[in-house]
Amino acid sequence: MPTAIAVTGPGLVLPPQDRQTPPAVVLRGPGEQSLDQALDDMRLLLEQHGHVIAVYPAGIPAAHERRLHTVRAILESDRIALLKSDLPPLGVAVLVRQLRQLSVCDFSAGVIASAARLLSHYVHAGALLHSVARLDRVPVSLKSHAKSWVPGSQFGVLANPEPQLVRVGTGELTGPRFATHLLVARGQSPSEWVTGTLARAWQVQTVHEAVLPDESPGWWGTPKLIEFVAYLPDISLIYQLVASVRREVCTWCGNELIGDRCGLCNAPCTRPRTARAAPPP
């Protein structure tokens, strides 16, 4: 069985792009199941899959995050990876689907867990917002705050890979320099700016629609938004990116890793590192 990929909410599970992509497992919070049940579920996952890689966005309830760490600590298992991501919720969902695709490839669990940091660099995640008054995850100037109170104002915001904020009609967001698909999830906004202006400027190949994750309004500070993610859709290219990075063995837990930190035990790599994989053509 492939390595299990887990999330903290059903909104972070996107439909598969092919028949080979396995589903993700949802790890429920303390309000939905007891600690004993959470432990039993994790033991079963480890028995069936060998390793579990849980990816969750920053900003989930503190009690839910504590539950994840409590389960890992009680089981004393280095076969459980807990990966907190600074990506917005829809970006996390895209990253999780890419890890699900990699889980059926010939990579070890350690390489898949470490690949999350690498693949995040190629995820352009943002949103169209009607107000930035409550946005605290991307730098917002006082001038932008003031303009957010003007009726009809709209802002294009990019959270990853580099924070950007522009007022729609007065600037453009810098997009990816490689071929991508665009995933769009609509909140309470009728605007067509994302699927029209932005999609043309970024020269995306295809636009897909998705359901807005429940976590998105809280992450962006408003329900009046359209969240979007430009991403690498081709699993063969994603595979090549991961395979092109030199593999090491973690000196702490003994698992394989790529990059400068073990994805399973979070220990830093103490050997000299090679450069990150080059951007795709």
What does this structure look like?
The protein has 281 residues and is of the alpha/beta class. It has two domains: 4-122 and 235-258, 3-Layer(aba) Sandwich (Rossmann fold), CATH 3.40.50; 125-231, Hypothetical Protein Tm841, Chain: A,domain 3 (2-Layer Sandwich). The chain contains eight helices and twelve strands. α2 (62-75) links the parallel β3 (52-57) and β4. The model is unreliable at 272-278 (pLDDT under 50).
CATH class of the largest domain: Alpha Beta
Order of helices and strands: EEHEHEHHEHEEEHEHEHEE
Shape assignment: globular
DSSP strand (E) fraction?
Answer: 15-25%
Number of domains: 2
Low-confidence stretches: 272-278
Please tell me how large the radius of gyration is. Answer: 19 Å
List keywords for this structure.
281 residues; globular; 2 domains; 6-stranded mixed beta sheet; 8 helices; Hypothetical Protein Tm841, Chain: A,domain 3
Describe the protein's topology.
Blueprint: E1 4-7, E2 25-26, H1 35-49, E3 52-57, H2 62-75, E4 80-85, H3 89-102, H4 109-120, E5 124-129, H5 142-147, E6 155-160, E7 164-167, E8 181-186, H6 194-202, E9 206-210, H7 216-220, E10 225-231, H8 235-243, E11 247-249, E12 256-258
Helix pairs in contact: 1-2, 3-4
Brief sketch in words of this structure:
This protein has helices at residues 35-49, 62-75, 89-102, 109-120, 142-147, 194-202, 216-220, 235-243; strands at 4-7, 25-26, 52-57, 80-85, 124-129, 155-160, 164-167, 181-186, 206-210, 225-231, 247-249, 256-258. It is α/β, with parallel strands linked by helices and 281 residues long.
